[in-house]
């Protein structure tokens, strides 16, 4: 019986798992961009420090998510070639 992994391990992932993670990653990027745009609209309207901090946090989060996507794409290219 094969033991199931509970966490995603990039070093041991096959192409189907990487493609699944890329789809999840794309969904998360879209959601973060949506929340970022909402926060920016609120910040422009209210000029609130709270929304400024949320916007900054979302930009940093988006940076790391895109960086993770680049790593997944690189791994995908290694496995397909």
Could you explain the architecture of this structure?
There is one protein chain. This protein has 81 residues and is mostly helical. It has one domain. 79% of the residues lie in helices and 0% in strands. It contains two helices and no strands. α1 packs antiparallel against α2. The protein is elongated, with a radius of gyration of 17 Å. The two termini are 30 Å apart. The mean pLDDT is 87.
Poorly predicted spans: none
Distance between the termini: 30 Å
How many individual β-strands?
Answer: 0
The number of helical runs is 2
**Alpha-beta content class:** mainly alpha
Question: What is the count of distinct domains?
Answer: 1
Specify the overall morphology.
elongated
User: What is the helical fraction, as a range of percent?
Assistant: over 70%
Average the pLDDT over all residues and give the rounded result.
Answer: 87
Sheet with the most strands, sense and barrel status: none
Order of helices and strands: HH
Query: What fraction of residues sit in β-strands?
Result: under 5%
Radius of gyration: 17 Å
Essential attributes:
mainly alpha; 81 residues
Helices and strands in order, then pairings?
Elements: H1 15-46, H2 49-80
Helix pairs in contact: 1-2
Quick overview:
The protein has two helices and no strands. The radius of gyration is 17 Å and the shape is elongated. With 81 residues, the protein is mostly helical.
């Amino acid at each position: 019986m094969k033991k199931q992994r509970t966490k995603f391990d990039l070093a041991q992932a096959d192409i189907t798992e990487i493609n699944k993670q890329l789809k999840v990653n794309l969904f998360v990027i879209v959601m973060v961009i949506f929340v970022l745009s909402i926060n920016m609209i609120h910040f422009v309207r209210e000029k609130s420090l709270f929304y400024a901090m949320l916007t900054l946090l979302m930009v940093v989060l988006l940076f790391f998510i895109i960086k993770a996507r680049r790593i997944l794409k690189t791994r995908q290219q290694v496995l397909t070639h």
